[in-house]
Specification:
- By secondary structure, this protein is mainly α.
- It has a single domain, classed as Chorismate Mutase Domain, subunit A (Up-down Bundle), CATH 1.20.59.10.
- It contains three helices and no strands.
- It is elongated, with a radius of gyration of 21 Å.
- This is Chorismate mutase.
């Protein structure tokens, strides 16, 4: 791992080994969290695929605006209590919801 001086892009000799070790530790944690997020999203999409099949079997619409609104409100509250920007959480959920609806539409056509 190379740490560079932001002023000139050269290696920063003032950065101690302990700082490098702390950065490595934090980055390892970030990598682990990213992996967990990917696995959690995969599990979520497995469930929403099942919902899509159930909706298709019963001729239900791919989107459920009332449920989506409830989930957005719920996620915003969770984000606030977790000290995460609720607007960011809402954007993320809207992105996920759009993908889920796209999957449901595909399932309904098949």
């Amino acid at each position: 791992m190379s740490i560079t001086n932001s002023d000139n892009g050269q290696p920063d000799d003032d950065v101690t080994d302990s700082v490098r070790a702390e950065l490595a530790r934090l980055r390892d944690s970030i990598d682990n969290i990213d992996a967990a997020v990917v696995h959690m999203l995969a599990e979520r999409f497995k469930c929403t695929q099942q919902v899509g099949h159930l909706k298709a079997q019963h001729q239900l619409p791919p989107a459920d605006p009332a449920r989506e609104s409830q989930q957005i409100a719920r996620l915003r509250t969770l984000a606030e209590s977790a000290k995460l920007d609720p607007a960011f959480a809402e954007k993320l959920l809207n992105f996920i919801i759009a993908e889920v609806i796209r999957h449901h539409e595909t399932i309904a056509r098949s």
